Each structure stands twice: as C-alpha cells, then as structure tokens.
Amino acid sequence: MEGFEIVLTTDRTMMSNHHGKEFLGFIATGPAIGVPEKLWMWIAAPKIDVDEYGRPREAPYGMRKVEAKLVDEGYNAAIIDPDYIHKYLDTMKILMIGHHDYFAYGPPSSEWWSLTGKEPVNRLSFKRFMNSPVIRKAREKGVKIIAGGPAAWQWLWELELWRKWGVDTVIDGEVERVIVDIVDKALNNEPLPDYIYVGPRDAPSIEEIPNIKAPSVNGLIEIMRGCPRGCKFCSVTLRPLRFIPLEKIREEIRINLRGGTKGVILHSEDVLLYGADGVKPRPEPLINLHKTVFEELGEKKEFAWSHASLAAIKYAEDEYGLISKLMNEYVLSDHRRFLGVEVGIETGSPRLAKIIMPAKAAPYPAEKWPDIVEDAFRIMHENKIIPAATIILGLPEEKPDDLVKTAELMDRLKPYRSVIIPMFFVPMGALKKNTWFLRDHITREHIDVMLKTFEHTVYWAEDIMNKFYLKETYLYPVRLGLKMFLRYAKHKVKKILKEGIEQYIKA
To answer: Which CDD domains does the record cross-reference, listed alphabetically (predicted)?
Structure first.
C-alpha cells in the first residue's frame, strides 16, 4: 500500500476504546484531579490496537461514516491513528479531524474547567495534537485541513487557534451530502469555504447514509437520527427524524463483531423511540430491533443503549411491560449483568421543564416531570438498568425555587442505583444566543444541588463497581485506579468544590 490521499484522525481522547468501557471515556472531560495526567489519560483513553498501516481496529463512529462515504465514492481514504499519520506526509493531501469536544466547551468539560480553573484533559490532549510537529509539517506541505464532528461549533469560539493551526474548513452538521464537493475542491486546489453549516434541509436521507466499513469504538451502531422532543437546549432536535432499517443495523453489527469488538451499543437520542408513534414507544419495532441484535450478538457479548428518555421508559413499562420484557428475554444473561444508558433529568422543576423542554415529559404533562423521573428511575433500578443522568444548572429563566425543586428530586432519587452529573448550561440548539453559565453565576442553591449529586454518585459508584462494573480480571488496574480516585474524591474533591465555590461567592 503506497499511502492515502485523505487521512481522517483525531487526538487520543477520541481515538481509544476506553478499555472497552464507553463510560470511562467521559473521565477525559475533566482535569486530572489527584493523579498524574498520564495516569488519568491511561484510565480514560489508552492507546488502541492498529494494523500494519496504522489503521485503528476501532474508530469513532461518526468518523467511520465519513470514511465509508469517501471510500464508496472512490477516494483513497482511511482513518489513521494519530501516532501514525507521519507515515503519510508524502501522500496525504487532505487531513480530516473530528471530535466530540475539541476545546472542552461542551458539557460536562466546561463545568469542570470553570469549577477547578484547570483545563480538562481532552482540551490539553487536542491542543498537543494540533501543536505537534507532524501537523506543522503537514501544513507546510500544503495539506488541506478540514474539521468537523459534533463539536464543530466550538471553532467559532477559538478563531485565533483556527488561524494559527491553518484549518481550512470547518463543517458543522451531518456531512454526507456536502463532503464529496468539499473534497473535490480541496484536491483540485480550489478555494474552500471557511465554515459550512449543514441545516435540516441538507440532512442526508437513509439511502445517502453509508454503512461503516470497519469497526466502531465499542461496537456503537446508529439506529436513528434526530429527536422529536424539541428540547430548546439541544441541537439534535433540529435534525429530521429518520429510522435506520434493520438490515443496515444487522450489517453494521456483523462488521463490528468480525472486527473483534466485544459487543454493541445501540445509538440514538432515544433508543426506545425506534419505530415509535411520535413520542410513544411501540412494542413491535423495539422487540424486532432487539431480536435482530441478539441474533447476531448471542449471550456472551456486551450490550448497551446510548440514550433513552425517562418518559419513554415509564410509558414503555407502564403500558406494555416492555422494559422488563426486553431485559429478561434479551439483555440479561450470565455474562450481561446490567444495561448502561444515558438519560436526561435536566431539572426537577415542573415550571422550568414546561418552559425549556415541554415535550421531554410527553406523552405525560410537563407538570408531572418529577414523578415521571422517579418512576423511570424505579423501573430502571428494578430491571438492572444503570443510568448516567444529567442535570443542567443555569438554564435560561431558572429561578432559586427551580433549584430547590431539583434538590428535592435528588433526595427522592437516593434509593435508585445511578450516576447523576450536574452540568453547566452551554448555549446550544434554540438557546444558542443565550449566555454561558459559569462559576461566577453560582448561587448557594446551585451548590446544594451539586453536593447532593456528588454524594449520590460517589455512593452508588462504589456499589456499581462492586456488583456490576469492571469485573474482568484484565481491568483490575483500571478498577483499582478508579477506587483510589473515589477515595480521594470522598475526602478531598467535595471539600475543594464546596470551599472553593463558597469563597468565590464571598469574593
């Protein structure tokens, strides 16, 4: 193989399978606290296996989609591990870079940065990558640099670095319809636009979305795009809703398993809305989806959902007993002791929920939001589903009483196994013209919510590790490292956060 004209890559925090545990990747969104940065990076983002050409065995799913689109169109393109891109300096004409959080402006990175005053590991890692000699040499050779991915919007906040690093084009949004035209222009040395925003009208159809050609990180498979709930703080709601056919899902599972991935993560903004009637889950498409997945997966492979909505969890179980059916008949086995999923609480205030995310509770009324949350947490706890939940602090129109309601909801959720992460509001979606929520906006009500979520998470994290997570022998060092951090966190982080924030308020 002589080389690639188009190389796709990213920094180490993204080009990793996180020891085969997706959740560990989120550790890279914080600064190294209590341990050296190298150890923090090893826990969150160890190096990944590559072939003789430097192609990673697993790579970020979105990057795999771009790679597949280019290969299908006949381009000489490949994803290359960041440690190996120097091998292609003589053949590379375009360098494509993707990331979920380039500059740590997304949640929860921005929160950790604001609270501690320390740059998160993902930001430091990406800056080192872009300042590396290989990137400088690529630019000197005239290589065109194109950046994209979910965090493309962050380049607008870093214009100085954009110019310094010589990034030619930033593409914000789904790229399948626009990437070929941009690549042709770049290869022909035609002028490139600085910034491209791909809106809903330019979103690709199902037929235009290619199947990946090689395994994605931890077997992540997209089952739908878009979300019908319309939460104002979320950019995904701007995309049209499309369901990926079962045949395409099955083929991508096979590609992942043939490539050696340890399981499958079904990816969607709300897995339970696959084939739904609006916001109401339907048993038939969900059962067919899981039946298809487990025909390929078997009993010994790992399995997770990326995201699910709490209202959908409650509706699916209350109306059809669907959660318990899926867990007992498909998910749980001698090798799969639990199911992991991300969920959004965002607020415990019915008033604020009605303003910011009125359809988040649908088909139930927004006024019942705290009850919906607790019911869903109970259902998950009873069915061995472990949620990683988010709270958003500093939402527009937030009042002190809204935070009191959120703190009260945290008390109600104490009995349920879960991880709850408070995040600072980041202006995105329909709220992108609002101001950021930063440390100088924190009130004592915010502190109360943060401390309650911290205590809840530390308590249940120990239980989760003891009963469910990181039980494999080869992961013992990672488990030990996390336990050491939890021990440190219980005695130090809480004190640092509480005293530091209160001193800042007094100042």
So the answer is: Radical_SAM
* Number of other CB atoms surrounding residue 435 within 10 Å: 11
Q: What angle do CA 446, 451, 454 make, to 5 degrees?
A: 125
Q: Is 167 helix (H, G, I), strand (E, B) or coil?
A: coil
* Residues 6 or more apart whose Cβ sits within 8 Å of residue 503: none
CA–CA gap between residue 478 and residue 485 (Å, rounded) = 11
Domain ranges for the chain, please list them. 6-197, 215-469
Alpha-carbon gap, residue 196 to 173, rounded angstroms: 8
- Alpha-helix residue ranges (DSSP H) falling in 271-413: 283-297, 310-320, 322-326, 350-356, 369-382, 400-412
Residue 274, class by beta-carbon neighbours within 10 Å (0-12 exposed, 13-18 middle, 19+ buried)? buried
Q: Which two tokens stand for residue 111?
A: 């929160």
> Hey, which CATH number is domain 215-469, 2.60.120.10, 3.80.30.20, 3.20.20.30, 3.90.1300.10?
3.80.30.20
End-to-end CA distance of the chain: 62
Q: Which two tokens stand for residue 283?
A: 């048993």
**How many CB atoms sit inside 10 A of residue 194's CB?**
12
Query: What is the spatial distance between Cα 131 and Cα 366, in angstroms, rounded to a whole number?
Result: 48
Number of other CB atoms surrounding residue 294 within 10 Å? 18
Q: Which residues of 399-413 are buried (b: 16+ CB within 10 A; e: fewer)?
A: eeebbebbbebbeeb
Model confidence, pTM: 0.91
State residue 239's pLDDT score.
Answer: 81
Q: How many CA atoms lie within 13 A of 254 on its CB side?
A: 9
Cβ neighbourhood burial of 114 (10 Å; 0-12, 13-18, 19+) = middle
Please write the tens of the pLDDT for every residue from 264-305: 999 999 999 999 999 999 999 999 999 999 999 988 789 999
Round to whole Å and give the CA distance between 175 and 150: 11
Judge whether 275 and 282 are in contact, CB under 8 Å.
yes
What tens digit of pLDDT does each residue of 326-361 get? 999 999 988 888 999 999 999 999 999 999 999 999
DSSP 107: T
Residue 262 CA to residue 266 CA, distance in Å, equals 13
Residue 194 has what DSSP assignment?
Answer: S
| Per-residue DSSP letter, 236 | G
In this structure, what DSSP letter does residue 492 have?
A: I
Identify the CA nearest to 138 among candidates 78, 94, 101, 105. 94
Q: How far apart are CA 257 and CA 297, in angstroms?
A: 8
The amino acid occupying position 358 is P
The answer to whether 265 and 342 are in contact (CB under 8 A) is no
